[in-house]
Amino acid sequence: MTLLGGARALKRWPQSRAEIHGTLVQGLPASMLLSLLDQLGGLALDDVAAALGLSSRTLRRLRDQPDRALPPDLASKAWQLAELLAQAGVVFGDAAAAQRWLAAPAMGLDGARPIDLLRTLQGSELVAEFLGRLEHGVYN
Q1: What is the pTM of this model?
Q2: DSSP letters of 49-107?
């Protein structure tokens, strides 16, 4: 997944959900999250930090420790954000449009901004389900 640094970020890229789980439990290198952050110019750092359950200051400090392993919960949220961004990019045509969509209130999500829903697993599932419906032309 290029949003997380692609093939150069991991020695062996996980091929299944079970392998992804194992990789996340071992801890992604912070450099993968930093790669994701570098590609999110259309989203406010505070919004991304909140979606990941961190402070903006903590995200900035990670820049000094790119080889540090992320704890599993943060690695999982980063992976999930990257997957949702990739899915939104497909639905909306490009990364910039996907980021604009994440930051704007969505009628199909009861007016909530998708980025705000990413704070919880349930909210992330709502966003993923909504994107799936949009992808298949089902808007409500």
Answers
A1: 0.90
A2: HHHHT--HHHHHHHTT-TTSBPPHHHHHHHHHHHHHHHHHHHHHSSHHHHHHHHHS--G
